[in-house]
Amino acid sequence: MSAGELDKKNTIDLRKKHIGPSCKIFFSHDPLKIVRAKGQYMFNEKGQRYLDCINNVAHVGHCHPDVVKAGSQQMEVLNTNTRFLHDNLVLYAKRLQATLPDKLSVCYFVNSGSEANDLALRLAWQYTGHKDIITLENAYHGHVSSLIDISPYKFQQLSGAEQSQFVHVAPSPDVYRGKYRSDHVDPATAYADEVRDIIDQTHKKGGKIAAFIAESLQSCGGQVIPPKGYFQQVADHVRKAGGVFIADEVQVGFGRVGSHFWAFQLQGEDFVPDIVTMGKPIGNGHPMSCVVTTREVAEAFMSSGMEYFNTFGGNPVSCAIGLAVLDVIEKENLQDKALQVGQYLCDLLEKLKDKHPLIGDIRGRGLFIGVELVRDRVMLTPATAEAQEVIYKLKEQFVLLSADGPHRNVLKFKPPLCFSTEDADLVVEKMDVILTELENALGLKMNNIMNGGSEEHQQASADENGPNRRGFTKTNQGTPHPSKRLKTH
Fold first, then answer.
1. Is residue 302 classed as helix, strand or coil in its secondary structure?
2. To the nearest whole percent, how much of the chain has pLDDT over 90?
């Protein structure tokens, strides 16, 4: 029986019976059954087309024919492990390294972003001889045990769980909602000083810093763009303490930011991490990932005496696919397209912000964009339920978008890089209608916002976490049950 032959109800029943209940699904009250995809579009079992604004795994487009062909042709000839010599491995490593600073020259190929980040921790521990890790608020680095420990986005959901004594959480460098905002004279230094203080406190307790790890742009944390200069200062503090800097590019690498191939390069040419991890877009959906580091770190890892071997990491098929992805990025000018279309989309969203009081902030680089919804632009009261409503309404209009961040109120744009200006026009047009309906139902008016206050502002001041008008309840949880959604008509 091939995929797509079951009716949707049978698929749901079998999933409930055989798939772990903690494996969540989009739109749980009415999930989508997707049977094929192409470019920036996905299709359900009835042939209905959905515009995919969230799938940063299908980096160059779903089922890109060049990528499919490369994997298929290599699979017909050979697939084996890296204990045998094969040109695909070394040619891909050489090609990948050419996109990076010279210092980052040694590759370890693995199978997922989680596996890459886990290996990065091992490299850091072995190279430094230290144990303590500094991570950021709301960070997510993967699903294996070592990474849950350094992912507040995950471990803070665990009731009664204790944070590892070797893990230290620094404030997210969020200049919109964070501790130091855009009106601060120097938010980059202020946030970096928080890391320095953590290092000092750790040393006083007898600990030693092995690594600071950060997504180059925080995704699950709410599409956060660190202020320029932050990474340089953090790296200086961490290296003085004997640690290394790990840049997690699993969600944001390979030209997504447009102006640069890697998001860490947004900080400036003078910043070079000690370890970079990659995943998701590297194989356009094929399970492939990589850790790239310096010769010094790699030699220290070898000095442990333990051989490193990964059965599937760097196999000929994966490397053929990786090479094809790089070819497509170059041939179709996808990095430039991400820059141009991303700027076009941001401009449209800024115009939408001028019109809609629910939009508090637009931020992003290239085709990595966040739209933070708030009920009050002064109090920054998270519009969590409203964000979920936008997502559900867009789904009804055959557009797929998601929300994330600590309050689940940031709409996330991370589409395949073949996303077009026409696609941007379509999404923003639909968002305009949906936001208008929501604001009318809530009684939100732009003139009240511009005058510095509203009925919602007064209510938020009285009870920041209390119930809202029109049946909304503030929550930091995920998508509300459909019965709790706003009825706008």
1. helix
2. 86
